[in-house]
Amino acid sequence: MATKKSTDPYAALRIKEFNLFLIIRFALVFAWAMQFIVIEWEVYRITKDPLSLGIIGLMEIIPALGIALFAGHFVDKWEKRNLLIKCLTGFALISFGLVYLTWEDTATYLSSNTILIGIYALVFVGGLLRAFIGPTVFSLLSLIVPKSMYGNASTWSTTAWQMGSVTGPALGGFAILWFGVSSALFIVLVSVLIAFVVLLGIGKKPIMNKKVDESIFDSLKEGVKFVFKTREILGALTLDMVAVLFGGAVALLPIFATDILEVGPKGFGFLRAAPAIGSFLTLLFITYFPIYKKAGVKLLLSIAGFGLSIILFGYSEWFILSFVALFLSGVTDGISVVIRQTILQLYTPDDMRGRVSSVNSMFVGSSNELGAFESGLTAKLFGSVKAVIGGGIITLLVVGYTALKFPRLRKLEFKDQE
User: Fold this and answer.
1) Of 204, 223, 286, 309, which residue is the least packed, with the fewest Cβ within 10 Å?
2) What average pLDDT does this structure show over 61-74?
């Protein structure tokens, strides 16, 4: 495969399979983001209890923490394209189940509690699938583009991810308003099926880890050991984990939209999309003006900015200011995501990508759900506003601690990507 200079902002886009990968990436994130906020809205409508929003996160964190490392082991051992096909089949079945549970006629013969339990159960199964999908997608990217394009490809991949994060929640809010919850979840199902069809256009990829006799225990230990001895990866994961865990204002948006700002499902959609809009615009800027110089310092400053944005959102009682605060949180998050993804792609050996990505999902991906539970619990105990502001303050404190604890992270630069 011929390589092109990484300074070309369209380098990775000149690879046909990478374009198909971006469509899949967008469709999956769009579907997952839209499905999550529609479920949030429906669960809060049924219960009117902030803790119920936290339980949604808990239902995903249990399988994420429980099988993430095992998933990474099998991702490294199995062919990536066929594995992703199986995962998307499961995702489609879950989406169909949610459409059924939220259909108006279903409520005539199933109680609200039964529907609620069914939603939680499907979210749990979805958590099992996510444990495989994340490492598989991460590994597939490195098999499609050459190493010289990892930085450029990571930026475009993250851009597709943020596009899905923008349009999924926004359309979810409007779809609830215009068509109802069940129809909104049907749109999710269609998006998953589109990703499935596009995936068929990508060829099978070689299996990089060919240690046939290696035990699962040794495989998992090797992956965890690599992450903890690579200070650049460990520092970046720690920062993002804490920011997502304690800066999880998004998990409480149904409460802010309904009870504090009083903007209804339409305003909820805009608020939910605001962080992704900020991140998306930032990623477009980064595509043309890379941030590889002094990447470590920029990572620390971006997450500190994220914490400040969350504090501003917690104090705000004005819709426009709340939107701006969430927008700024997306701008800073966009910078940190690109830097973290580039660190992972550059520092991870090909035969360990599944396991390292699984550890990443335990640090960062699972902290989304654990953060939702933490936010729901603290909102229940102390109130939504105090929960959000406190989370932002903790984020700032951890940034300061990480800057002192990981000096190599402060000095990090991606010289081979310039």
Assistant:
1) 204
2) 73
- The residues, ordered by sequence, that sit 6+ positions from 62 with a Cβ below 8 Å of its Cβ are 124, 127
Cα separation, 336 vs 332, whole angstroms: 7
Instruction: Spell out the alpha helix ranges (H) of 230-294.
Output: 231-246, 253-255, 264-288
Minimal CA–CA distance to 399: which of 303, 328, 296? 303
d(CA 247, CA 229): 27
Fold of domain 12-202+214-417: Growth Hormone; Chain: A; (1.20.1250)
Does the pLDDT value for residue 4 go beyond 60? no
pLDDT digits over 87-126, tens only?
999 999 999 999 998 887 776 788 888 888 898 999 899 8
Buried b (16+ CB within 10 A) or exposed e, 212-241: eeeeeeebbeebbebbeebebbbbbbbbbb
Q: Quick one: which of 391, 276, 387 has its CA closest to 323?
A: 276
Q: Which amino acid is at 376?
A: G
Distance CA 328, CA 334 (A): 10
Report the chain's mean pLDDT, rounded to a whole number: 79
- Residue 6: its pLDDT value, please? 46
Lowest mean pLDDT among 98-102, 348-352, 371-375: 371-375
CB contact at 8 A, 143 and 206: yes
**C-beta of residue 17 within 8 angstroms of C-beta of residue 144:** yes
Token pair belonging to 131: 């444990």
In the predicted structure, residue 43 carries a pLDDT above the cut 90 = no
Count of beta carbons in the 10 Å neighbourhood of residue 90: 16
- Provide the CA 272 distance to its chain's centre, in angstroms: 14
Say if residues 316 and 252 touch (Cβ distance below 8 Å): no
Angle between helices 231-246 and 319-347 (to 10 degrees): 160
Rounded Cα distance between 4 and 293, Å, is 20
Cβ count within 10 A of residue 327: 20
Sequence ranges of the domains in the chain: 12-202+214-417
